[in-house]
Known about the structure:
Strand content of chain B: 15-25%
Order of helices and strands of chain C: HHHHHHHHHHH
Helix content of chain C: 40-55%
CATH architecture of the largest domain in chain B: 3-Layer(bba) Sandwich
Strand content of chain C: under 5%
Radius of gyration of chain B: 33 Å
Distance between the termini of chain C: 40 Å
CATH architecture of the largest domain in chain C: Orthogonal Bundle
Oligomer: heterotrimer
Distance between the termini of chain B: 11 Å
Shape of chain C: extended
Amino acid sequence: MVKEQTFSFFLGCLMPNRYPAIEKATKFVMKKLGYEILDMERASCCPAPGVFRSFNKVDWMVAGARNLCIAEKLDADILTVCNGCFGTLQEINKHLKENEEHKELVNEKLKLLGDYEFKGTIDVRHVAEVLGYEVGPWGIEDFITRKVNARAAVHYGCHFLKPTRIREIESSEGPTIVEEFIEALGVESVRFKEQLTCCGAGGGVKAYSGDSSMTIFGEKMKNIEEVKPDFILDICPFCHLQFETGQDYLNKNKSCNYDYPVIHLSQLVAYCMGMDQEFVGLQYQMMGKDYIFGGEEGKEEEEAI
Amino acid sequence: MAVIEDKMEKSKIEPEDSDEPRIGVFVCHCGHNIAGAVDVAQVADYAKNLPNVVKAEHYMFMCSKPGVQMVKDSIRENGVNRTVVASCSKNQHGKTFAKAIAEEGINKHKHQQVNVREYCSWVHKKDEEKATAKALRLVEAGVNRARKLEDVETRRISTTKAALVIGAGIAGLRAANDLAELGIPVFLVEKNSTIGGHMTQLNKTFPTLECPQCSISPLTNGVANHPLVELYTNAQIKKIDGSLGNFEVDIEIKPRYVKDNCTSCGECSLHCPVEVPSEWDKGMSMRNAIYKAYPQAIPATFVRDKKSCIECNTCINICPVQAVDFSMESETKTVKVGSIVVAAGYKEYDPTEIEPYHYGQDGYEDVITQLKLERMMSPTSLTNSEVLRPSDGRLPKSIVMIQCVGSRNEQVGNKYCTGVCCKFAIKNARIVKEMYPDTDVTICYIDIRTPGLNFEEMYQSAQEVGVRFIRGRPSEIVKDPITGELKVIVEDTLSMTPLQLNAEMVVLSAAMVPPEGIGPLGSKLKVLRSKEGFLKEFHIKMNPTLSSKGGIFLAGTIQGPKDISETVAHAGSAAALAAAPLVKGYIEKEMLVPSIDYDLCINCGMCKTICAPAAIDIDENGRPTINEIACRSCGMCMPSCPTAAIQLINFTDDQLYDEIIAVSGGGAVCE
Amino acid sequence: MVEKMSETKEEHREYKTDEDFDKNYFKDIERKSNIWQCIQCGSCTASCESGRWTALKTRSIIRKVVLGDLSVLEDPDIWLCTTCYQCYERCPRDVRPTDVIMELRNYATKLGNISPTHRAVVGYLKNFGHAVPINDEIRKRRVELGLDELPPTAFKFKQEGDDEDLKKFEEHLFDIPPPKEEKKKEEKEGEK
């Protein structure tokens, strides 16, 4: 049995190496909620699903299984904040648990990388569903000190919910988990056209052809622009990067004038739980540097006796 | 020639029958067909020496007159009381010899046909030695079998001259009509308050674009008024007992709360304060709590929907003939019939589960199904036959039809192709385009399937008037959150272009699926269901209108999706089959049935579970009993029994072992 | 002397025969029995976010796999799929096109058909344990935010002198063959 209320925190690449504010926010949030967060020493890139799985599926499974083994040794489920890492680790974990033949193949090769053996003892979790289902909009009320009065364009990304037969979280055609959760924080989700489409970064496309990636992304920004949200909310650091660098690119190359702050769910929740805005880290980001979270301060005053 | 040696001492095997078996064996040359590969003389010689064989001959053509006479003579002259003919297959000439021995007074089941042609000479043409050795084993096996054959009685059971037809849609009406015309009284049971089924809901039928209400009218009126037809509407089957030729059926008739003296004047409905969506009109209009489903409905008597009624009693007071009576109660009527025809129909697939199409969701009222479109275009529709958007009542400038909704899908819906949707979509598209030439009408399809006479022409004529055909299955229907406009996202595969189509209205061509309540109905009938959920036919090619149980016949879409012409033909076949035992007055059944040794039986009930025609029941003491009329002689009860307590006559374990021993070479060995 | 007929300036198209396809090339590809059931309905291409704006036509890719048209392995368009899985969700024959495309990329990679930027990413994984390595600016930022300068991943251990993990990555994982042009060059030099 895995340790209760404990997570092996899988960092991935983009969060620690580009957006460390998300890392800080996540640790803050999980500790406040009463979870113990363990470091996964020697972890590597998950490896990124669209990139490495495209090069060699077996090596991708092996490298992913190695990360899973690190968490198995800690005896705690993995927590990740990134759709890509979730996509890789959850799928490999489930697949190797169900497919004896591939499990043996992977364990054979794992031995070459060190003292690693995949046993299939842990699960892989994403912060969006831990917050959305386990804590829930009903449960988060007890932990927040303020709400934010804002309209957000919510971006679910792709690998959080899909493939639905593997993730088994919610239908990908009409999800509500994140939007229902942030409602409890005072954020209204604004529906925009083709909300559920991809940000255009995944599958190795951003590296392979930045232009194509930006073409896809440009259309998404057009739809978001129509509803003029206060900020864009994401649950994946890669989408986060795409929204940041993308708006910058479109401003420089396509005469656009975007400046929407891009906020990861962890950052939003951390702020509502009392983290100072400077640690939320917007000043380090490219877009929306001047954005200040508005809203209801001092929620305690509202509590009835 | 191979030297055949007897490796085992053969002891005379005592039969369990009282009369000593005297077996006659006849080996046929069949010209060169058998004799070309098998040494028939050797086989006959070998047979002569087998225990209980009193006569063994070989002859050129056993099925010829002299050949058959040989068999008959052996009975008369040599006291042969069981025959074995080693020639062609049982299907080919088994009956010939069985009939011959019956003419000589021997029970026809005491003939054993051994196939040394299809099973031996024809497949081993190149190896005489082995073919002959095999033939020896086959004949010995046949002799072993014949030794223990018993008389099987042919029982004549008189049938009840009446039929039950379940469902009064086009299939049920056709069947009821055909049966009644043969002089057979029919009990026609319909669960809705009106007859006519789905056909009456359609606007026009393909390919001739006739009005279905007009086409069906002679039939509905004819059947409803036929002296031999007793019609029960608002009624369902409660219980079915019995078997082929003699069923006893309980029909539960729900109260209409309106007596038969109703003149159909409509005053009650006019003054009824309650309004609910009309099921018959697929929600396209409202009806009252006391209502008639549609103007031409038969029966014309109104009906009260107790659930929505608020019991204000207005209708009671206003009825000029005092026909409304809230005190009416359910009635159960028990009828005795000889045959049952099931014509319970189908229902339209509910596309709600296909999420990207958003059917039934708020804001997507303009996404409808073909049946709803038919209702809209019908003469008595709420929209006055105009095609209008449900959301705002406007005429749509663009209509997109999507095919294969709920069909041909491995992930949602059903795997099969309904086979009718291309036809009705094209029919409707053409009608709409001719009504509104300025409206864009598009059909998005994977394949266009319009087989049969006049249908390719119908497809062409739709193209002629400007219906646009796009080969591509739409991935989703999107709605602009600001403007509210609907768009259909599809790839025109033929030109490799992804498209967004304007769609002020989307019509989904939904599949035909088994109707509501088919589960309980199937259980009551004790018939098998197909894997798609319909009622399963006895043989897909040779017997599509007989169910898995004798005496119960299938008519129409209850057996699988079909159009009206196919349904009518199907129903006619079911009626003819249903009529046969009733017109004849009896059925003759060979009692090739199992018997149970209750000393061995442990009352586990496995035989009942496995019996497909449900011919085994459990009595009050927990013991299995056999319904000999329903039994199909399939023998599946035998392997299911853990103690071999149940044995099928002439196919007992004992008899089969004897055969197997010989076939496996326990008697003869070839070098 | 018979004079040669002047060459036509038009593009000469090939009239393909069975021999132009290799039906058995993909015989070991996963889910091949489902791929063969593709009815080319186009739900995938219609769902494709990338395909709307780029040259990627998912349906055609699957068609090439079914026919055994090996030009698909040189097709740059297979690298334009963002793996959003929308086609996977909607395919009525459960072909799972996303997985097929990623397998095709495996085949292509084995032939050396992988872009220079992707090769670089593999290099980063082997050198730094990350597809996106950390840089000085972020190291400073981490300290400002109150976090450890380096996250406790394999890279940190390498910085501290223990690079066992990454050495093993280099040795055992993601051995990508050189691109075709280089191979030909090597072969030519070998011949010399």
